[in-house]
Design goal:
With 208 residues, this protein is of the alpha/beta class. Helices cover 31% and strands 29% of the residues. It is built from six helices and nine strands; from the N terminus they run H-H-E-H-E-H-E-E-H-E-E-E-H-E-E. The chain has a seven-stranded mixed β-sheet with strand order 3-2-1-4-5-9-8, sandwiched between helices. Strands 6-7 form a two-stranded antiparallel sheet.
């Protein structure tokens, strides 16, 4: 599935489904927020949420006082929903419509967060491109947090195949640029009362 097919697919989902009609919905993204707390991310950090869509993470980060937030998604419809929800506060966020595997950042980031976008990259070149983009556009003392379906999680999401990760496979994938800080597996309860198991890992930038 190429870039434009994916874009149309995700735009259609966000244009036709209700906020709570998607499996990834979370009113409070507790696991993601816990990394900001554990890693003591300063309020002035340059943050990007990859595949953020209409996630509520940005709302909570604004509430906490973070001042430099970017949200990237392949779906403009998803970002428009988030902007509409935030109202005037959306002006304090940088919104980026792009494919995570071909994104060309215009700045470097201190904290790169990705919950459930990376696992949609299943081709070797897509994965290597993503790792290279993150490695070259996260500051030397920056942090990377990735959440994907684990080997106990689903093999598809929204009709698209995904790539499952363990702690070891995640570490190996990002090894060229990053050193693992911590990994955990968590269960996400969907709005449909099903359980999805995730692998979350945090890394620090290790390359010069």
């Amino acid at each position: 599935m190429d870039f434009f097919d994916q874009q149309n697919h995700w735009n259609n989902i966000y244009q036709t489904k209700e906020l709570k009609g998607v499996s990834w919905y979370q009113s409070t993204p507790e696991t993601s927020l816990s990394f900001f707390e554990k890693l003591k991310v300063p309020l002035t950090a340059k943050i990007i949420d990859i595949g953020g869509g209409d996630s509520f993470l940005v709302d909570h980060l604004l509430d906490l006082g973070y001042t430099d937030i970017s949200v990237l998604d392949i779906s403009e419809a998803a970002l428009n929903r988030a902007k509409q929800r935030l109202g005037k506060r959306s002006e304090n966020v940088k919104w980026i419509v792009a494919n995570a595997a071909s994104f060309k950042p215009e700045e470097k980031y201190d904290f790169w967060h990705d919950r459930a976008a990376f696992h949609f990259l299943t081709e070797v070149d897509q994965i290597s491109n993503y790792v290279d983009i993150a490695g070259k556009n996260i500051n030397s003392d920056g942090i990377l947090v990735i959440g994907t379906f684990s080997e106990q999680g689903p093999k598809k999401c929204s009709g698209i195949n995904i790539k499952q990760y363990t702690e070891n496979s995640m570490k190996e994938t990002f090894n060229p640029f990053f050193e693992k800080i911590d990994c955990l597996t968590i269960d996400h309860k969907t709005p449909f009362d099903t359980i999805q198991n995730f692998t979350f890992c945090s890394f620090k930038h290790s390359a010069p």
